[in-house]
């Protein structure tokens, strides 16, 4: 038997995958169909928990049932594995800089890239994480 969080995680992943397909709202019925091996009551409870805890932006009825999901904030994207953590994002950037430095044919530019890379690894990591996070959020309209 799945734990509550495992069920919630599956429901969240289904919602995010649906948004990735066409970017429109996701109906309760679509979520039920996507995780049809789960009991409908379990899916409804998961949607309610995910909505009230900020993992999804759900719209409900007077009975507080979520009938449509109109968005998935960063918190939900991260939990579903569709958004990198701050550390993952900076690690990707550092790997890209390292690859660029290794493939650079101009010795002066290669030296500059290696200097930047060394600075980031030695102490600028937190600053870069904050700047990169702000840029990503602003770029996708979250900041």
Strand order of the largest sheet: 1-3-2
Task: Find the structural class using helix and strand composition.
Answer: mainly alpha
For the CA atoms, what is the radius of gyration?
A: 20 Å
Measured by DSSP, the beta-strand proportion falls in: 5-15%
How widely separated are the two ends?
Answer: 39 Å
> Got a strand count?
3
Compressed to H and E, one letter per element, the order equals: HEHHEEHHH
Residue ranges: pLDDT <50 for 5 or more in a row? none
CATH fold-level assignment of the largest domain: Arc Repressor Mutant, subunit A
CATH C-level of the largest domain: Mainly Alpha
CATH superfamily placement of the largest domain: Winged helix-like DNA-binding domain superfamily/Winged helix DNA-binding domain
What's the overall geometry?
A: elongated
State the domain count: 2
Mean pLDDT: 84
**Architecture of the largest domain, according to CATH?**
Orthogonal Bundle
Taking the sheet with the most strands, its summary is:
3 strands, antiparallel
Specify the number of helices: 6
How does this structure look, described?
By secondary structure, the chain is mainly alpha-helical. The protein folds into two domains: about 5-80, Orthogonal Bundle (Arc Repressor Mutant, subunit A); about 85-140. The chain has helices at about 5-20, 30-35, 40-50, 75-80, 85-105, 105-140, and strands spanning about 25, 55-60, 65-70. Strands 1-3-2 form a three-stranded antiparallel sheet.
Which features characterize this protein?
3 strands, elongated, mainly alpha, Regulatory GntR family protein, single chain, 2 domains, three-stranded antiparallel beta sheet, Arc Repressor Mutant, subunit A, 6 helices, 143 residues
């Amino acid at each position: 038997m799945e734990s509550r969080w495992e069920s919630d995680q599956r429901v969240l992943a289904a919602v995010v995958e649906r948004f990735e397909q066409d970017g429109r709202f996701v109906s309760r019925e679509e979520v039920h169909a996507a995780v049809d091996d789960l009991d409908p009551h379990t899916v409804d409870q998961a949607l309610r928990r995910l909505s009230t805890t900020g993992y999804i932006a759900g719209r409900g009825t007077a009975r507080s049932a979520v009938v449509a999901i109109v968005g998935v904030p960063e918190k939900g994207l991260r939990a579903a594995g569709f958004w990198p953590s701050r550390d993952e994002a900076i690690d990707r950037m550092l790997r890209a800089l390292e690859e660029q430095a290794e493939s650079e044919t101009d010795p002066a530019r290669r030296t500059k890239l290696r200097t930047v890379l060394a600075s980031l690894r030695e102490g600028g990591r937190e600053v870069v994480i904050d700047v990169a996070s702000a840029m990503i959020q602003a770029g996708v309209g979250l900041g």
